[in-house]
Design a protein that fits this description.
It contains 22 helices and 17 strands. By secondary structure, it is an alpha/beta fold. It folds into two domains: 214 residues, YjeF N-terminal domain (Rossmann fold), CATH 3.40.50.10260; 265 residues, Ribokinase (UDP-N-acetylmuramoyl-L-alanine:D-glutamate ligase, 3-Layer(aba) Sandwich). A ten-stranded mixed sheet has the order 8-17-16-15-14-13-12-9-10-11, with helices on both faces. A seven-stranded parallel sheet has the order 3-2-1-4-5-6-7, with helices on one face. Helix 4 runs parallel beside helix 5. The termini are close together. 50% of the residues are buried.
Amino acid sequence: MHKEIDTLIITPAEMGRIDRMAAASGLSSYGLMERAGQAVAAAALRRFPGALRFAVLCGPGNNGGDGFVAARALRAAGAVIAVHVLGDIATLKGDAAAAFLHFTGTVAPLADYEPQPGDVVVDALFGAGLARDLPADVIRLIEAVRRNALPVLAVDLPSGVDGRTGQVRGAAFEAEATVTFMCRKPGHLLLPGRTLAGEMEVFDIGIPGRILAGHAGHMRVNMPAIWRLASPAQTGATHKYVRGHLAVFSGPATATGAARLSAMAGLRAGAGLVTILSPGDALSANAAHLTGIMLKPLDDDDDLKSLLEDERLKTFVLGPGFGGADKARGYVRRLAEGGRRLVLDADGISAFRDDPSALFELFAEGGPRLVLTPHDGEFARLFPDLAGDKTLSKIERAQKAAARSNAVMILKGADTVIAAPDGRVLVNENAPPWLATAGSGDVLAGIVGAHLTQGLPAFEAAASAVWRHGQAGRIAGEGLTAEDLPGAIPPWPTA
């Protein structure tokens, strides 16, 4: 059964507050460390039964304290250990100092560690709170471990990965697995941290859920439990217009395929009707490939104005293979003034690169009805200052962009981030690497459009579309092309 804490993403700063509140509530902070270290030792013994020696590398803070507890538990289990410490033992404080005193074993300086065949490295140097580059001696050690191809079990997060951003601070261990506590951090989900963390284990060390929820922000892992209840109800009275009419703008005759991918994805994802709005010179190209999707000529703003007289046509996708920037801006303006919902992708996003504020002003009023689906390059065209700010994480860039544009932001990638103007944010993790193929984004835009036209709020429409898109990639399998994806879109999850 789903528990809310299973989806929580906690920043290092939030985790620090949670730890302090747990201690203030009467929980023993050293008791929490003891449970954390014991969990690390159990994971090490379970995952690496053939280890000849566990090299436990302890840092100067609480992550190192977890390492001392783990070393004591490993030794008690009969394992051979070697404990190496970064810095002066005399400077250890608080729970980390207590963990060292309880260890009572031999320790050596970190610089004395020499990798040996059969070693398993338990990395307890720096946890998720790292916010500076690693010192040179730690970088040299990481390089030595990598040269010797030793497996690494990371405590909390591989040392060198910034827990807030997922970025590497000089160098980082590449862990076979990571044991973290209570909830995942952004660095576990954002690239390259996700890759470097390896297989994740999240261990409950006993902090009450009420404390977690009370001091966490609005970050979650994207999963059906968050948005399933927003799904449109299907009853005996449901008909095609109840399920919504989605319209997708086509590009010129030489660039029609992207719009058809979006349209087919929209139909497969649940839209009751889908129409491609095609320039006259592209009608023949589109008609030759369409069956269940309708086709309507549309060449200029007057044609669109006439089309919008049909109040049932509420949701549009503009951008895939569209081309002309001037026409795109005019169409977007007409849709915004008409109160329509819009998924703006690809060429539609790039059309506003010279004046992004013109786009944001069109959708500034009311709840979000614009969904933007940029990859990093397109994001930089609308938000050059945010893209250029290297202090921001991908999550923070998406949040700030959503607030500025009053749009739901799908910042694409293997670690896609979905952000709402009110600060809610989800990080997606179900997309397989082979989903990165030409036309994949066109399919995603169509799924978002289908969800919007069925009446889902923009944030839930975007989040559920990203998840179904990822699942479609898994179902279609390695070697897929974009044409395979619409037929692989899974049913709406029911449990």
